[in-house]
Design a protein that fits this description.
Layout (H helix, E strand, L loop, with lengths): L6 E7 L6 H14 L3 E6 L2 H4 L8 H6 L6 H8 L3 H14 L2 E6 L2 H9 L5 E3 L7 H9 L4 E4 L5 H16 L7 H9 L1 H10 E5 L14 H10 L3 E5 L5 H8 L4 E5 L17 H18 L8 H4 L2 H4 L2 E4 L14 E4 L10 H4 L15
Parallel strand pairs: 1-2, 1-8, 2-3, 4-5, 5-6, 6-7, 7-8
Antiparallel strand pairs: 9-10
Helix pairs in contact: 1-5, 1-13, 6-7, 7-8, 8-9, 8-10, 12-13
Amino acid sequence: MTRPRTLIIAEAGVNHSGSLEAALTLVDVAADAGADIVKFQTFNANSLAGRTARKADYQQRTTDAGESQRTMLQRLELPQSAHHPLIARAKARGIEFLSTPFDPMSLEFLLSLKLPRIKIGSGDLTNAPLLHQLARAGATVILSTGMATLGEVEEALGVLAHGYGGSNDAPGIAAFRAAWRDPALRARLEAKVSLLHCTTEYPCPPEDVNLAAMQAMRAAFKLPVGYSDHTDGFEISLAAAALGATIIEKHLTLDRNAEGPDHAASLEPGDFSRMVSAIRNIEGAIGDGVKTPKNSEIKNIPIARKSIAAARPLNAGDVIGAADITTKRPGSGRSPIEYWSLIGTTAGRTYDTDDPL
């Protein structure tokens, strides 16, 4: 059985630095690279971060260490009005537009755009009100699981299951757990939810990737599982694709040396294009799992394999012994699997050395 095509997301994120022109260019670059989806981030800085919210270490290294997280986010915020030209550009380029909301107002706005799906970032895996709002709206979701335990992912899925079910039961931990145990609501999750394994560090050290967690989540939740890659380069994305990731998400930038929190953990256009090509090659290489000769190699069977041949001249009527026969190329004669069957039989005709029996 051939597996589904891997969905490749170019995470433009905030790598536009608040510039609509740069954001439009990122849409073009993502399309040129062969990505299926270009993703941005939709947020109101004041709603997202409080005055005292500090920046992560990687953010302090790549931006002004003295500014607050809110101040940094204000510089990176795209207004709602910018989404319409971005969606139009994506449609014109044949690539899906996607965004991640970080606050209820931003989610409501994205829902109003009737996008095919919504991406929820790892930081909101435990944000039950936001997850419930999304599920109540019936939206399809890609849920990132960085920083989470398997139990926390299950809790988030319970919130979504309750929201998708449209239950009149008041939201709460007990109701969410009951929803998770409901087979009908679990089936609803299978139709609506994909998970992304990731490690929330930029760039992520390879030893902290833990790609095996994809299989653990797939076994535990019976949902499609992909990988959001924050490592340097893209070899880990290729490994994830080979391990069956249904989605690969990777940051895209126009310049890795630009100032901003995510540029250093992103790929520039050329590398992103090479990653896409490599993933497509891997998909083709995995195949359907049926072990049988492929068309390209059938012609080499008689060349590479061996046949049973005379090891020395034989006369008709000679009793064939082990020293009388050997195996040699070409493989167009009797298969060597019959070697022992011929020992003790009588030669039916005369054979010269190397003649196939």
